[in-house]
Amino acid sequence: EAGVTQFPSHSVIEKGQTVTLRCDPISGHDNLYWYRRVMGKEIKFLLHFVKESKQDESGMPNNRFLAERTGGTYSTLKVQPAELEDSGVYFCASSPFRGRTGNTIYFGEGSWLTVV
Amino acid sequence: GQQVMQIPQYQHVQEGEDFTTYCNSSTTLSNIQWYKQRPGGHPVFLIQLVKSGEVKKQKRLTFQFGEAKKNSSLHITATQTTDVGTYFCAGTATNKLIFGTGTRLQVFP
Prior knowledge:
The structure holds two protein chains of two kinds. Chain A is mostly beta strands. In chain A, 0% of the residues lie in helices and 48% in strands. Chain A has strands at 5-7, 10-13, 19-24, 31-37, 43-50, 53-56, 65-68, 75-79, 88-95, 106-107, 111-115. Chain B has strands spanning 4-7, 10-14, 19-25, 31-37, 44-49, 55-58, 61-65, 71-76, 85-93, 96-99, 103-108. In chain B, strands 2, 4, 5, 9, 10 and 11 form a six-stranded mixed beta sheet that branches. In chain B, strands 1-3-8-7-6 form a five-stranded antiparallel beta sheet, with no helix packed on it.
């Protein structure tokens, strides 16, 4: 079974440009999460989808970040325009059961974003 | 908002020494999970604890969930160089997994 896949694995963009990160969760997983880890800091929650609906987007830093999950399958996270402080690793994760707390969350390998 | 703190932030040990990281939440958790992230890698699930006072063991790793379900610990006995990485606790409250600040472990041979 394929794990959570993310694309691109690495991206270097200039300040002011736009970047779109994509996540394909494990097939059949209703829950999809985005997390971010900036250099040396903790892994911070960004948002949570249940199927195509945003369950919780309280961790989104500002309106330069836009997440979508079309048809409840893959998800995209767009940063527009990118700022230097957006640099970090963006992790996507998925878990299988809708509405249940405490399920194992499976992480992708991350999209490493560098804004210069 | 909910916070999950871990101490220490860094720990350097000699191979064969023991290591412990502690995790404290500002709110009561429904469960706690532990993850390991190797340098340059992604978080990998280690274990989940659900019950108050629960203790689980995985070979040299011992995990404990506090009675009040607000704190947890991970203890590694006789560390090996393969234990190098950052260990994160992550607590679930209000259906959201909040990660701790992480403890980076370095093991010298």
